[in-house]
Each structure stands twice: as structure tokens, then as C-alpha cells.
Amino acid sequence: MPAGLILWGVGAAHSISVGGLIIGMGMVGFSITTGGGVPINYIVDSYKDLSGEGLITMILIRNVMSFAFNYGITPWLTASGIQNTLVAAGMLAFVFTATFLFFVKFGKSLRRRSAKAYWAYVEKGVGGIH
User: Fold this and answer.
1) What is the DSSP string of 66-121?
2) In whole angstroms, what is the distance from residue 62 CA to residue 51 CA?
3) Using an 8 Å Cβ cutoff, are 76 and 85 in contact?
4) Which of 21, 31, 54, 95 has its CA 20 to 30 A from that of 39?
């Protein structure tokens, strides 16, 4: 995602060939598609019994972020220009994407620490199936 946004922004600002822009847009499109699947898999694999609630929460956050980004992108583009806007968006995408490193490092210990609360919520929410 970051590389695609930067390629697209810098390329459009400096009038590179359409092929370069298509490659940048393709990278962004691929990242959007795979970026949606990764959190869904994490939720379902890590919190099986609450995957429905997790999916609803993830979709709600995704939709709010999509609305906020779409609402704010036009003034941002107008004020900063296409190159600066998409380079900054690429850096934001890098920061957000890099959060997976946090979960690689601390995810297992966080799940272990929250296990008691998780099972209590499952008992309460699912109706005592377990």
C-alpha cells in the first residue's frame, strides 16, 4: 500500500507514463483486498467464539475510517497537492500496516492475559454453551 500510494502520487505529479500509474493503482487495489482479509483471519483464528462480534466491530471501524478518509481527502488534496497528499497517505499506511509487528511480538501474551475475560464474555454472550 505505501509503495503504491507513493508511486501513484509522485507519478501523477510528475506525469509519468500511464503504465506506472496503473502499477501504483494495482498495488493499492491489491493491498485493499488483502488488507481486509488479514484482520478477519486474525479475529476468527484468535477469538473463534466471538468472531461475529469481532467482525461487526472490524467492519464498523473500517466503514468509519473509509467515510472519514473520503470526507477529508478532497480538502487535503486541494491544500497539499496530489504528490504531498499521497506521500503522506503512504506514510500513514506504512504506520498502520506496521502494527502487525506489535501483534507478532505481543499478541500471544495479550491473548493469554485476556483469556479469563474472554471466556467470561463467551459464557455471557453465547449463552453458556461452553
Assistant:
1) HHHHHHHHHHHHHHH-HHHHHHHHHHHHHHHHTHHHHHHHHHHHHHHHTHHHHHHH
2) 16
3) yes
4) 21
pLDDT at 126: 62
Q: How far apart are CA 129 and CA 49, in angstroms?
A: 10
Using alpha carbons, list the distances in angstroms from residue 90 to 16, 74, 82: 18, 16, 12
Cell triple for residue 77? 488534496
Contact (CB, 8 A) for 65 and 72? no
pTM recorded for the entire structure:
0.75
Distance CA 75, CA 63 (A): 20
